[in-house]
Structure formats: C-alpha cells, structure tokens
Amino acid sequence: MLAMDAALLVLKDAGFTFSDLPSSMDRGSFRAVYPHPTNPEEVVKVPHRGLNRNSMIDVATSQAMSAVGEPVIPERLDTIQRNVMVADPDADWDHTRAPMMAVGTTPQPVFLQQRAPHGPASRTRELLPYTGARDNVVDAMVNFEGDGVSGSDKHKFERLMNLLGGDLHNRNFGFQIPYEEVQTLAQQGDMQGLLDNLAAFDLMSSIRPSDSPEDRHSSGDIGRMMRAGDIDPEKLNRFMELFADRSQFDGLMDALVHQPPPSDEVPYEVKRETRGERKRVEDAYNAYIQALNNAKRMKSYIDDPYQTRLMEYDMAPLDEEQRNFGGAHPATVLREAIIRARAQQAQDALEGRPPMNASKLRREIIVNRNAAEGELHNELMGESPLGEMPNIRRLLGPVADRQMRDRMARLAREEDLR
Questions:
Q1: What letter would DSSP give residue 68?
Q2: Are 368 and 341 in contact (CB under 8 A)?
C-alpha cells in the first residue's frame, strides 16, 4: 500500500491537458467547473475567456482568508495545455460546420480548488422541510455575508470574511458537517453554529484595483476595512501580509509571461493564442498590484489618519474642476472623514450603544466626507494663515505633541550650534 500511495501522489502531481477533463459538472458566467482528472477531492475551474482583471485579486484574497482562519475554501492558479484549433482546409465540409484540426498547444490558466466536503449548502437546504429549520439555513447563508441581520444584533455575525469578500451566491456555500448535523442545528435555531460550519468555496473579492482610494466612491471600501480592523486588528494585519505575497503567482508568471518569444516554426495561430493568454495574465497581475497598493494606502489612512502632510492642501486635485474650485486634496478630506467616524465610534461606546456595523460605518464615512469637503473648502478660500486653520492645526496633532516636537527641534538646533 505504501507503493500505491506513493504512485497516487505522483499521479496527482502529474500534469494534465484540457482534453483529459471529464464532462463539465457546472457552468457560470465566467468559468466552467470540471472534476479533477487525477484528484477526486478537487475541481478544475476553466475561465471561458482566460483570466480577467480581478482573477489574481480573488485568488490572493481567498488564500489569505483561509490562512488567517476564515471559513473559505481557497483557490489557486495553475496551467494546463489546451489545443489550438483551426479549420481544416483539406477536409470536406457542408458549409455549416468546418472540421477542425489542432495545430499546436498553448498553456491556459485554470483555477484549482478543494471540493466542499458535503456539497453545496443549497442542496442541504432543499432537503429540509418547509419549516423554520429551512428558514434558519437560508438566514445563515445570507448572514454569512453580513447583510442579513438588522438592528443591534447585526455586529454579532460579522467577521473578516463578511467585510473583505462578497458576490457570493447560493451555490457557492457549503456546509462542512453532514446533513444530519445541519438539521439538528437548524431545528435548534443555532445560527452561530450554522455560521461556524458554513464555508464559502467561490469567493469574489471586494478589494478592487484603483488609482485613487481617495476618490469619493472608495468610501464603502474604507468603511469595510475599518470595520474589519475593529473586529480583529491582528487578523487584518496578517491578512494584509498574506495578500501581499506576490510569490504565489510565480509559477503562473514563469509559465506564461517569463518565456522567450515563440520560434519561427510555431504556427501563427499558436503564437496569437499564446500572446493573448500572456496579455490577460499580465493585466490580471498588474490589477493585483494596483489593488494591493490601493489597499495598503487605505489601511495607512485608517491606522493613522493624522499623518496628513501640509503639502496635500496645496497639491493639485485630481481634475481641473477641483483645481479651479480650490478644494482640499481628496486624501485630506478622506482622513478627516475617518477622524470624525472614529470620534463617533468612541462616543457610541461611551454612551453604551452597540458598535457600528459595516453598513452604518460606510454611511458614516460618506456623510462625514461630504461635510468635511465643504468645510475644508471654506477654510481654504478664507484668509486665515495656514497654521491658524482649525482643521490643519488639529491634523498636525494634539497641542502637547506639537509642543514636544517643537522643543526637541529647538534643542537639536542648539546642539548643532554648540
């Protein structure tokens, strides 16, 4: 049996081609799902049109989520060989369908993922009778994303997964316990037990590539990340470290991008398909790097909103209309909104109110952002000296801290003179 086990491991690691895949077991808008030809515990997800801009972001998110203990079955990227097909010029055909022939192969990126242990949660739900037990399973699937509970209890069901992942559908959940155990928890109304045994096995990340996290449309992203930090700051820090691990894509980049140009003997159709796949992989990688930098910058604003530099008040805004209007730099406005949201959170805690859930925090950021933008504009259009503007003075830090910095700077100058 040891020899058989060793042989099975070799077989699982062996490469396979697209033609080795069994019949499709499911299809979606972007990918088709196939049983893994050599590993019955995995599935192969083949994108219909190659990778898109968010593919690597989603993979990095799912890998990081799983590594920090969130209930996610992660995906990883690999390549398989796909035949490049062209019409056979020498074959007889009836003008309705040209016989096809393979002129070569090209590597195609695919997603690999472990199967949900007990199938989709939607299948488990359908087995339950139309009673409160089924309703409890439905509620668990909705609440897993953090948007199904209203009122003061909503924050109890939130977790990092709820805030940094989204676009989950009914078929993309799976229970990690058998049907009988799900049934027992559902009949008992044990929502936390259902949530703890539910996994998302097809994650679409809410982190998106952007040149400008300061843009007003990023308020929701800021609110979600702030809430994630409130729930578990150490887990969010670890998530960011894992999300930033670029080495997870080295194999794919080596297989498709870091390759010499095809030789002259390679058919034109194969060259064209190879260039197309390489371009899509490069675009996905560039989008991942852009999203990573965007996330790091947003987190730096949340961790220390007082880091605003004075030059941001004089930096050219993002467009001509803002430049003529004379508004503060969007980064300054965003940080001011974060400062005000944090102050409101502290006030809520002082008065015994439950913590803001993600939706309320997003709204708080948007409201504060709109208010701060107008106030900062009024200050900048006035004639007050720069250091006397209330918001700028406060963004420089508490008075005691400023006095300490001034004293240290003065002592340093005196020391240099001596």
A1: T
A2: yes
Cα(282)–Cα(305) distance, integer angstroms: 34
The first and second tokens of residue 70, run together, are 């969130």
Separation CA 164–CA 161 (nearest Å): 6
Question: What is the rounded average pLDDT for all residues in the chain?
Answer: 82
Q: Which residue has the tokens 């699937």?
A: 141
From the list 176, 173, 175, the residue with the least C-alpha distance to 202 is 173
pLDDT category at 260 given cuts 50, 70, 90 is confident
| pLDDT confidence band for 37 (50 / 70 / 90) | very high
User: What amino acid is encoded at 242 in this protein?
Assistant: L
pLDDT at res. 367: 93
Query: For residues 378-405, b (16+ Cβ closer than 10 Å) or e, as one string?
Result: ebbeeeeeeeebebbeebeeeeeeeeee
Give the DSSP per-residue string, 300-355.
HHHH-GGG--GGGGTS--SSHHHHHHTPPPHHHHHHHHHHHHHHHHHHHHHTTPPP
**Is the pTM of the predicted complex or chain greater than 0.85?**
no
- Measured CA to CA, the distance from residue 223 to residue 417 in angstroms comes to 49
Q: How far from each other are the two terminal CA atoms of the chain, in whole angstroms?
A: 82
Q: Is the separation of the CB atoms in 37 and 20 below 8 Å?
A: yes
State phi, psi for 293 to the nearest 5 degrees.
Answer: -65, -40
- How far is residue 44's CA from residue 60's CA, in Å, rounded to a whole number? 17
Specify the pLDDT at position 17.
87
- Give me the pLDDT at residue 261, please: 81
Q: Cα separation of 281 and 209, whole Å? A: 15
Tokens of 324: 């003529």
What pLDDT score does 375 carry?
Answer: 80
Residue 167 · residue 71 · CB < 8 Å: no
Residue type, 103: V
Q: pLDDT band at residue 330, thresholds of 50, 70 and 90?
A: confident
The residues, any chain, with a CB within 8 Å of residue 195's CB and separated by 6 or more, are 140, 143, 144, 157
Mean pLDDT in residue range 360-389: 74
